[in-house]
Amino acid sequence: MAAMRARQKIRAPRRGLAASKPDDFDSIWATLAASLREIHTKNASTLSFEELYRQAYRIVLISRGEELYENVKQLEKKWLCSEVQKQVTAAISPSLLLEQEPADAQDQSNERRAAGERFLNALKSAWEDHQLCMGMFTDVLMYMDRVVSSDHRNPSIYVVSMALFRDNVLRSPVRPDSTTTIADVLESTVLFMIQLERAGHQIERPFIRHCIYMLEGLYETVTEEDSSKLYLTTFEPAFLKASQAFYQAEGRRLVEMADAATFCRHASNRLKEEEERCRYTLCSYTEPKIKEVLDEELIRKNIAEVINLEGSGAKEMLDHDRLDVLRNVYELNARVDKKKTALTNAVQKRVYEMGREINAASFAVSQNTAPKPGEKEVAAAGGEKKAGRDKEKEKPVNQQTIAAIQWVDAVLGLKKKFDNIWEKSLLSDQGMQTSITTSFSDFINMNSRSSEYLSLFFDENLKKGIKGKTDSEVDALLDNGITLLRYIKDKDLFETYYKKHLSRRLLMKRSVSMDAERQMISKMKMEVGNQFTQRIEHMFKDMTISEDLATSYKEHIAQSGDPDQKRAELEIHVLTSTMWPMEIMASSSTKEGMVQLPCIFPREVESLKHSFEQFYLSKHNGRKLSWQPSMGTADLRATFTRANGKVARHELNVSTYAMIILLLFNEVPTGESLTYEEIQARTRIPDHDLIRNLQSLAVASKTRVLKKEPMSKDVKPTDRFFYNADFTSMFTKVRIGVVSGGGNKVENSDQRRETEKKMDEERGGTIEAAIVRIMKQRKRLVHAQLMTEVLTQLSSRFVPDVNMVKKRIESLIDREYLERVAEEPPTYGYIA
Amino acid sequence: MSSPEYVTLVSGDGFEFIIPRSTACVSGTIRRMLDQSSNFSEAITGRCVLENIRQVIKTIGVVLEKVCEYFCYNEKNKEQANVPDMDISPELCLELLMAADYLDT
Fold first, then answer.
1. Minimum CA–CA partner of B93 in chain A
2. Quick one: pLDDT at residue A55?
């Protein structure tokens, strides 16, 4: 009820509106129009917003909104055409219209610049006024907008007025008779300004910025999509085109005139400049686009040329560690090419070249110092086979060892250099690393002796190099070596050499630190895998077991109650023959294909040997011990009776063979001699070992325990040897090394061939094993696939020769492990 | 010229309401009216005289009072959910609707 009553009190609101007189519109419009003009002339403060608003409101209420809308449009158009356009065109001075060629404008640039600034300023203020007024119009006519725009889907009055500005100001001709529009002038002026700025002049950025704002605020269509901004449709393309031409020319000029560093610095600066220009002068939309232009015109087209520039390109930068420039190049290259092909190639090439230089240098070192026979007495001993050649060999062999170490050092140096470059200049780029690694691997493997050299490097360091170094230094050193190992493809070859060198170190106790040795092995294990180090570890195990064995043997002797005081002490290494390098185990005897009888030990030693054999076999039944005197050493106490009756005592540390020889002289009366042949017959020491030992005993001046007749450097079968009672030495303990037998050196070519042959045999076995393993699993396999699998399986150890693999497959077929099951494509089957 | 904190709204029949500027600017029309950059006379004086429109809008005191009440109410509850309804008497309903339309509130 209450509601009913309440409703009755509500009066119908718009009663009487229809009755408003038609001339109301005209009169209201007249006042409104006058007021709007006031707004144009910036006299708004005299006007009451409320009044204007109310008038517009009333017009809309009497349903004449449409007309109002049209009238306002007309009013605005008239204003723009008559006033604004004139103002702007007045600011265009002839110099702005003259040249369309901005390049030749240097001479009149100042004049043109001033004119341009004036014009831009005028346009800017016209635009700002327009914006402000239109804002006010919109405010005042809000009610109209709300009704007219939403009901009839007309663009709002603001949008319309913006379009009017576009059409009636920007697109109006500068002069009635010309086709150049104000927008054209604007464009060329702005481009001119930018041109000036690029040439290094200061320009009024804010003017440009405001005009760009204007272009950004105007649209091609009334729907005002972002993409139809005038800036994007007209100015930006022109700007990009001008920039393209500019940078094309600049790129050409720079490549011709400047060096690579300058080019790169310049390019980076340009990039920064354009970025800044987009941010402060133009529009941030353009930034990626202009950068693309730069990338394309300045960088992509020239970078390869720049990198390869003679005398200042990447090569130069790498050589002189110009890290910052290089980094610059890298960044530029990375901009245009994800893979950085140009730079990668350059770096790769340089690494390869430098690597080759190192290879060549080491080759030169090993070759250049051609043997000079008879240069030094001391150097006379040595060599491997024939005494005659030995003299000449000894020196180059040492030289080569030095070359090997130098080579490794040089490679490490190079590696360090490039690591540094990679980290600092190439931003630790993955792809770069890969290609650098490839190059390293390439040139390292090009040196066929790299495995041997590297192993020698380790040998040298583990023997001497790490003395007095801290743990971390040792660690770094080994790590370096390991890095190189990573590059070496034929890891099995390395293993062979390493084992050989290691065995010498272990048996002759030349290793400085067992810890370092173990560390080395664990590193290799991590790097190359378990299989690789298995044998090496076993060698260590043998050493440990031998120690225990020696101890328990000593106890055994003590218990057995044979207190023979004269008994020599025995320290023994029992080595598993399959684990230790072959050439040590099967001494030289097998070489000539004839059976070498075991050498005859002196009585004392023989009994000792016998006793140990018994002891060992009682513990390990069914094993065979073979003695390797070539690797052993012995401590002797020797008494020299001088002519004057005095007695000198020396402790001699000699090789086992030398010990045997010296003990022979115990039984020779003073003054008597033994011929070479006699010695050999009584000891059965292999020829070349005997020669070497006699040389060190009788020829080397400091350790001349024996005298030789005739006194010459060579040892001939007819030579006679005497006990040298006049032997003197400053030291009580004298170490008599076997000449060139003990140290680890670069192999001579014969040994090399030997090693390679052995290597090939071993590889053959490994390949066969791999083939059988794969076939057993697959049963049937196409030839090509089998090849790939074999290659992948073996790649961690070495790079197999394809022909070798083929031969092995043939051989397996012959031996009926495999069969051919199809010809096209060739397919093999596994025979269980 | 800094904007004074308070503005005066004057009704068609002469009632004056002094309310905070921010509160008055709840109305789109008044906000534009007071816009400094347009610089209309209202913006300078801070005084908005809302005239009656013949037979259409009567910004008589009661209505404007309610409008101002709404301004405050709106300001107060701007950022809250579950706001209690404002109490509006049926008699004023239509007048207020018209005023709201006019003032773009």
1. A10
2. 80
Residue A494 φ then ψ, to 5°: -60, -40
Contact A362, A407 (CB under 8 A): yes
Name the CATH topology of B6-78+85-103: Potassium Channel Kv1.1; Chain A (3.30.710)
| DSSP-based three-state secondary structure for A821 | strand
Question: CB neighbours (10 Å) of residue A826?
Answer: 14
User: pLDDT per residue over A479-518, tens digit each?
Assistant: 877 877 777 777 777 777 787 788 777 777 767 777 777 8
Q: Are B83 and B77 in contact (CB under 8 A)?
A: yes
Domains and CATH numbers, chain A: 23-228 (1.20.1310.10), 238-337 (1.20.1310), 352-544 (1.20.1310.10), 630-735 (3.30.230.130), 755-830 (1.10.10.10)
Q: What is the ipTM metric for this complex?
A: 0.84
Mutate to test the interface with B, among A54, A128, A157 (most CBs of B within 10 A): A54
Is residue A705 within 8 A of residue A638, CB to CB? The reply is yes
Task: Identify the closest residue of chain B to A9 by CA–CA distance.
Answer: B91
Give the residue-averaged pLDDT of A310-315: 66
The more confident residue out of A435 and A700 is A435
Residues A194 and A188: their CA atoms lie apart, in Å, by 10
Task: For the sheet with A733-735, list strands across it.
Answer: A633-641, A647-655, A733-735
Is residue A821 within 8 A of residue A827, CB to CB? The reply is: yes
Distance CA A237, CA A215 (A): 13
Q: How far is A50 from chain B (nearest CA, A)?
A: 7
